[in-house]
Amino acid sequence: LVIVLDFGGQYNQLVARRVRECNVYCEIYSYKTDIEKIKAMNPKGIILTGGPNSCYEEDSPSYQKELFELGIPVLGLCYGAQLMMHKLGGKVITPEVGEYGKTEIHYAPNAVLFQGMPETSICWMSHFDRIEMAAPGFEVVAHTADCPIAAAQNVEKKLYAIQFHPEVLHTVNGTQMIYNFVRNVCGCAGTWRMDSFVEETIQSIREKVGDGKVLLALSGGVDSSVAAGILSRAIGKQLTCVFVDHGLLRKDEGDEVESVFGPNGQFDLNFIRVNAQERYYGKLAGVTEPEKKRKIIGEEFIRVFEEEAKKIGAVDFLAQGTIYPDVVESGLGGESAVIKSHHNVGGLPDFVDFKEIIEPLRNLFKDEVRKAGLELGIPEKLVFRQPFPGPGLGIRIIGEVTAEKVRIVQDADAIYREEVDKAVADYKKANGEEPSWMPNQYFAALTNMRSVGVMGDERTYDYAVALRAVNTVDFMTAESAEIPFAVLQTVMSRIINEVKGVNRVFYDLTSKPPGTIEFE
Ligand code: XMP
């Protein structure tokens, strides 16, 4: 185990992910975690993350000096590096200018963490404070033009300080530096792998559940699908999955979920599909206000699920597809500000009669969940699904939701995704890599606008479809993706020709902020 001590920086989850990419298991804890607790966990290494403060100020996040005297290797990154120096007798100052972005850096040949790297390279800097004087016992092993102490090491005490961000991909060889720390300095064996995770989790689910009954709400999204897969492999028919088709899924999605998890699929479990389309359309009739739509869709889900749960009766466990970022973002893991109270964490349905919660994916990052899904034999199509909002097409149809509008947006969206996927596949075939414009999320939405057009010799008065595609790292900010114009034109022409009721296609150029990714 490696512990990532979170001082509130923006890249903290990235740090943990990079460690796991080295096949080393790690967990994120707040800098407020008691040192006795840390000792009790017996970590092989500790990484201190970046953070937004000045470490020499009174009330800044800090940690007692003892942390550096445990004999456990410590790597400080950015704020963590400054804190290490500050605590051990070095000096940190706030200079006139900070240092941001890609920066040329020079490494010393004897730098333990930079072994096997060119002496001059590029790193990602993002700091205003800097280390003015290294602490006694440290040697300086990297510098940039504006930062004379970009890294320092005390090999004997196994303490390492790096001013830049190796966890960010812009730092060339950054992952190698993390590897050098966790595998070489800390001596972690690198046995954290998805195949063993799946095996071990199946064992521990069996032990925990015994002959009890488990209920899972399956949405068809990546997390709940992988949770269903792993639970099914562990306990078979002791698992019941309730899949609510609210009629706001993408084209053919309900049937796809059923083909994987239903009676003719590859998993052994009780699968209940509730076809609640008409109920939802009924509730949504005449409703145009976005928040009201969201609320109705959410509440209706609870009602439908409640009815099914009542039919099933008491269960021993309620399973949830909570994953590690949900835990961290809910403020339970690290120190980063509580960004959103996650729907998967807390807020448990009080109408289900269950004794305990079971969350088999609670320690996994999204890319690990996907690997586990592949390991379990869940089809790639499901495992690599795009993010899809809980309220589904309900928030991609502006204004009132009707069955007709759902049909239009489903068909237009299916064409759009098919053409983008095809263009990406062609590009990959020709160039051996993904295109730079590869969007992280792309979908069609239905504007509530109708306009005049002409088709054949006829006047038309039909809807306009909006195409959205974004490049984003964290979905908190996003840029409109530069899908090649030829692809957009093909999509436009296919949608106009194949989807009845549409005579105009727009491409949404808005970034987030000011726009959001979804339309409502
Ligand atoms: P926005 O529209 O807020 O979307 O820029 C950011 C990301 O979150 C997804 N999203 C949701 N996911 N329930 C969800 O599970 C929701 O109500 C919801 N609203 C937005 C959206 O698809 C995008 O990936």
Automatic annotation (TrEMBL):
Residue ranges constituting the GMPS ATP-PPase domain according to the UniProt record: 192-385
EC number assigned by the record: 6.3.5.2
InterPro entries: Class_I_gatase-like, GATASE, GMP_synth_C, GMP_synth_GATase, GMP_synthase, GMPS_ATP_PPase_dom, Rossmann-like_a/b/a_fold
Catalytic activity: XMP + L-glutamine + ATP + H2O = GMP + L-glutamate + AMP + diphosphate + 2 H(+)
Pfam families reported in the protein's UniProt record: GATase (PF00117), GMP_synt_C (PF00958)
Domain of life, per lineage: Bacteria
Residues at the active site: 78 (nucleophile), 165, 167
Residues binding ATP: 219-225
One GO MF term attached to the UniProt entry: GMP synthase (glutamine-hydrolyzing) activity
Main function: Catalyzes the synthesis of GMP from XMP.
Record note on quaternary structure: Homodimer.
Annotated protein name in UniProt: GMP synthase [glutamine-hydrolyzing]
